Amino acid sequence: MQPTDRAVSVIEILARHAFGLPLSEIADQLSIPRSATHRLLADLRDEGYVRQDYDGGAYRLTAKLVAVGYEYLSAANVSSRLQPIIDRLAEQTGELVVLAVVDRGKLLRLIKAQGARGGLLYNPDEGIEVYLPATSNGHAYLSVLEEDEALQLVARQGMNQEGAGKNAPRNIRQLFEYVERARKTGIARIFDVWVDGTSAMASPVLRPGSRIPLGTISVAGPTIRMTSERMDQFADALKDACKAVAEAGFDLPIFEQA
User: Fold this and answer.
1) Keywords in UniProt for this one (predicted)?
2) Cα distance between residue 101 and residue 129, in whole Å
3) Closest CA to 31 of 52, 49, 10
4) Residue 11: how many other CB atoms lie within 10 Å
5) By C-alpha distance, which of 220, 241, 226 is closest to 123?
6) Cα–Cα distance, 96 to 234 (Å, whole number)
7) What is the DSSP string of 148-180?
8) Is 204 exposed, middle or buried (0-12, 13-18, 19+ CB in 10 A)?
9) Does residue 2 register a pLDDT over 70?
10) Rounded to whole angstroms, how far apart are CA atoms 63 and 128?
11) How confident is the model at residue 125 (pLDDT cuts 50, 70, 90)?
C-alpha cells in the first residue's frame, strides 16, 4: 500500500468506529508496523482530520471530514437537487429513507432523511458501504445486474455477516430467491433480514432510458410498523422517488462511477 492509500484506509477504519480505536488495533487492521501507523496518524492529526484526546488514548475522526463532505455535496449540487426528493419520501412514509449510489461496483450510502416523528425510531449507524446480501438496497441493486456480475460482487463481500437478522440468506440460493422476487416486482422487501425487528423496501435508481443502475432508495422501519400492507401503500411513492432522483441527478458527478 502507498502512503496515501494507507491514510485513506485509516480514515475508512475510523469512520466505522465513532468512539475511536487505539493505535495498535488500527495497525493490526492495516497489517502494517505500528511505527508506520503512528506516522500516518500524526500526519492526519496535523491536518485536522484525526484527534487523540490524551497520550495513549484512542484516535477518532474530527468533524473536518464531515465538513469536507458537505462542502463537496453542496458544490456538486447534490444537496439542492436530491435531498428534497429524499426528504419528501421520508415525509410521505414516516420512516427512514436512504439514497445509496453506485461507485465502481460498490453501493455507498450518501443521503438519508428520518420521517418518523414519534414512537419507535429506526436510525442505525450502518456504515458507508451497503452489505449487499442482507439489505433491501443490496437486493434492489443486485436485481438489475447480470447474474455473473452480481455473484462477483457478493463473493467480494462474502456472506453470513455476523449480526445479520434471523431471516438473512445464508447461501447463494437463498439470496437469489430474494433477488428474483425484487427483479419481478421492481421492489426488494426484507423482514428481519438486516436486523431483527426491522423491515425495509428498496428500488433501483436507473439512468433514464436505460437499465444502468445509478443507485437505490430504501424505506426502513420497525417490523411492527413496516408491514407488508404498509409497503404496498409506499410502493408507488418509492418508485416515483427513484425516477425523480434519476431525472434530477443523472448528470451529477456522484453518478459518474456507476
Assistant:
1) DNA-binding, Plasmid, Transcription, Transcription regulation
2) 10
3) 10
4) 15
5) 220
6) 13
7) HHHHHHHHHH-S--TT--TT---SHHHHHHHHH
8) buried
9) no
10) 16
11) low
pLDDT at site 155: 94
Report pTM: 0.81
Locus of grid cell 407488508: 228
The domains located in the chain, with CATH, are 3-62 (1.10.10.10), 67-255 (3.30.450.40)
C-alpha cell at 74: 453542496
Nearest residue to 98 via CA among 250, 210, 238, 211: 238
- Residue positions counted in the chain: 258
| Lookup: cell for 48 | 485536522
What cell does 164 get? 445479520
Q: Examine the pLDDT at 101 and tell me if it is beyond 90.
A: yes
CA distances to 138, 239, 255 from 252, in Å: 22, 20, 6
Residue type, 105: G
Average pLDDT over residues 79-101: 95
Neighbours of 30 (CB within 10 A): 18
